[in-house]
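Class prep. Write one:
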Amino acid sequence: MTIVEKPLSEVRGSHRATGNGVTMVAKGYRKGRRLDTHMHREAQLVYAARGTMQVTTPKGRWLVPPDRAVWVPAGLPHAIDVLADIDMRTLYFDISWLQRERCGAHLTSEFVVRVSPLLHQAILALFEKSAAPERTALLIKLAMLELHQAEDSATFIPLPQESRCRRAADIVLRRPAAAHEIETLAREVGTSARTLSRLFSAETQLSFKSWCQRARIAAAIESLSTVSNVSVKQLAADLGYASVPAFSHAFRQVTGQTPTEFVVNRPNR
């Protein structure tokens, strides 16, 4: 895997700098676009005001629909896959700015946040060309305060690093709706079911069954976020659930809401 360092000056899009260590970049990407693994000298808050993306780091894979944003620390390798046309709004923070503002250890690793209406409006306001410096500074501080309250892992799929476990995980991710038996997967990757089960627990902090459910729910969130007029009943069947109630129960366990509630509450942005 090649990791390319991308200086902020090379990031295409509409730039706006505060002059004291924070830069805003607005950029649109079409469905199917992939930003290969790269890193920046700056930390960044990546937000799609419209559309859905997937962000992959060594730690795992996040599905990022319009009501989520992802924090990426400086120097962290990451890739972005565009799953539905997006209007990306990214805030870049110099390390010196983070130190000066005394941003804590919470921001030293990647995570996804649920974007509240307040955070959504604050980010959009930062990209208004007429914004005064004092207002911009206050909006940035407001956005950072919201980050400290909003961490959310419902759309996160931890990726194991051990080679056999990772191969098994990749098989599941290619077909998350399939009924994957751990015995069959173990034979495919050259280990025992007992060892593979132990590896999944140690590497992802989830049991194999729970990890597979997380992968299926992530696939469901992707469909609900990117497909218009999706049928919850058909989606449940496509993902291998015996009934809509069973699917809704599993979806609620991960996201805190039913698939129908997710669609109703999905931002129209």
